[in-house]
Amino acid sequence: MASNNAVVVFSVSGCCMCHVVKRLLLGLGVGPTVYELDQEHGGREIQAVLSQLLSASPVMSGPHGVVPVVFIGGKLLGGVDKVMACHINGSLVPLLKQAGALWL
Prior knowledge:
Blueprint: E1 7-11, H1 16-27, E2 33-36, H2 43-54, E3 69-72, E4 75-78, H3 80-89, H4 92-98
Parallel strand pairs: 1-2
Antiparallel strand pairs: 1-3, 3-4
Pfam families: Glutaredoxin
Main location: cytoplasm
Domain Glutaredoxin: 7-76
């Protein structure tokens, strides 16, 4: 699911941090592929796998589990904390360009 698109966001509808990540990416001109796990068949299983992927790194888990989870260029970037850190330190846009999600 994550390797077929430049930017993929695994989300849960109604999650405010998921909304923040999606709005940031849209504001940068990226049209991410979004999977709303509460509306996807097998969403709980997908969320369990994402949790395992993130278990190697410190993850903030909220009421909606580990979402949002962002993949750029088929590679796991992380959750909202990692996305925001990359945005603030200036590394997010180059990652998006490298993945082909931005052209400018």
